[in-house]
Write a structure and sequence with these properties.
The structure holds 2 protein chains of 2 kinds. Chain A is of the alpha/beta class. Chain A has one domain (55-199). Chain A has helices spanning 14-28, 78-89, 132-158, 162-170, 176-192; strands at 35-40, 58-63, 69-71, 74-76, 121-126, 197-199. In chain A, helix 3 (132-158) crosses helix 5. The longest helix of chain A has 27 residues, at 132-158. Chain B has a domain at 50-159: Nucleotidyltransferase, domain 5. The longest helix of chain B is centred in the first third of the chain and has 15 residues, at 20-34. A 5-stranded mixed sheet of chain B has the order 5-4-3-6-7, with helices on one face. A two-stranded parallel sheet of chain B has the order 1-8. Chain B is 29% helix and 19% strand. Classes of the chains: A alpha/beta, B alpha/beta. At the A-B interface, helix 1, strand 1, helix 3 and helix 4 of A face helix 2, strand 1, strand 2, strand 6 and helix 5 of B. Strand 1 (35-40) of chain A pairs antiparallel with strand 7 (145-149) of chain B, so a sheet runs across the interface.
């Protein structure tokens, strides 16, 4: 029997097949949004004791149903909220429970504003008819205010941003020993400016 | 001299397309690896608000999603235009949130249960009333870690 040469398979249509698959994956791909504002809700258990907060230590942020903003009885634009919150948190006009003054605060030491970042509480109250996007914008500005101060202190102490440390810490690819070191630093900064953001149940009218 | 003249055949040689499949396969593998199959069919309008102080969400196996917003136009004839909550491909009332969270938490691996995060994917036109109701339900079952999922962008865009 005479041996016949096996004819070569034509690979010219390979590109077409690959293109078809490529287009399928292009069409079905949705880039998922997987980032957002992390928040912690207050636990349900009723508080054992009534905590009294002095008025100067409270920054009251109200959002009404027309998405307007009121900070300490004053109508405020959203653009100014961040600076208001920074001024309030960074005021350092007194001492905390341990009797320490805030030596890292750079605020105005105003008599009518907060005494210490440990004591400064931001209270956020919204209406049931407030739009969700406004609420997120306000939350974003308040988180930004904390981040501004925390970044400032992180720059001073460790020559890096707090948000940068946080994202490295949350990255699953980071080594454990790097994480341990970062954790300590993050906690130090968080202790300097603890996030005290209280959310009351919304108002019904 | 004739030797050299032979080369000048005049026509341009065709560009070889032999490497085209390789290029296309490379692209194909890229898209195959980055594709995540959607596990929920979103039945509500889901235009997320924007924020710029965002943190990345935790790994997927410890995240529970809650969607809320107006029903998608194709469901509006059946479910109306009031904003609703969607859990697992179904429209549910607020009361169902707590049991849903408990069921999801129970189905997680033991060591992940305390790390559970609830991702709220809420349409930006929704009223806070609905969101507050969800938050109250979450507090009842002690699911306190929440993440308001947002797009990255300037927060001032939300006011427009």
């Amino acid at each position: 029997m005479a041996r016949r040469a096996i004819p070569e398979v034509n690979a010219g249509s390979m590109a077409d097949i690959a293109f078809l698959l490529l287009i399928f994956f292009l069409v079905t791909t949705t880039i998922e949004t997987d980032s957002g504002l992390d928040r912690k809700l207050p636990p349900m258990e009723p508080q054992d004791e009534e905590v009294t907060i002095r008025e100067r230590n409270l920054l009251q942020v109200l959002i009404n149903k027309d998405n307007q903003l009121m900070v300490n009885e004053e109508l405020v634009e959203l653009e100014d909220l961040r600076q208001r919150a920074v001024d309030f948190l960074d005021n350092g006009g007194g001492t905390n429970d341990q009797g320490e003054t805030c030596d890292y605060c750079q605020g105005a030491r105003d008599e009518t504003s907060s005494v210490h970042p440990d004591k400064a509480i931001i209270s956020l109250v919204n209406d049931r008819e407030t739009k969700y996007s406004t609420y997120i914008a306000v939350q974003n500005e308040l988180v930004a205010a904390y981040n501004v101060l925390r970044n400032r202190e992180a720059q001073r102490l460790y020559k890096t941003d707090f948000t940068e440390m946080q994202s490295v810490y949350n990255d699953p690819k980071t080594d454990d020993d790097v994480k341990d070191r970062l954790k300590e630093r993050i906690e130090t900064i968080q202790k300097m400016y603890p996030q005290l953001l209280s959310e009351a149940e919304p108002r019904k009218n | 001299m004739a030797k050299f003249k032979k080369k000048k055949s005049g026509e341009l040689p065709a560009v070889s397309t032999a490497s085209l499949p390789d290029i296309v396969f490379m692209l194909l593998f890229f898209f195959m690896t980055v594709t995540v199959m959607k596990d929920d069919d979103i039945m509500v309008e889901n235009e997320l608000p924007t924020a710029n102080q965002v943190q990345k969400l935790d790994k997927k196996d410890r995240v529970v999603y809650i969607y809320a917003g107006k029903p998608h136009p194709r469901y509006q004839s059946k479910y109306g235009t009031q904003a609703r909550i969607q859990l697992n491909d179904k429209f549910e009332s607020v009361d169902a949130v707590a049991s849903y969270i408990l069921a999801e938490r129970a189905s997680m691996r033991q060591e992940l249960q305390p790390l559970m995060t609830t991702a709220l994917k809420v349409d930006k036109e929704t009223n806070m009333g609905l969101v507050s109701d969800i938050k109250q339900e979450l507090r009842k079952v002690n699911a306190l870690k929440v993440n308001y999922t947002t797009k990255e962008g300037d927060a001032m865009n939300n006011l427009k």
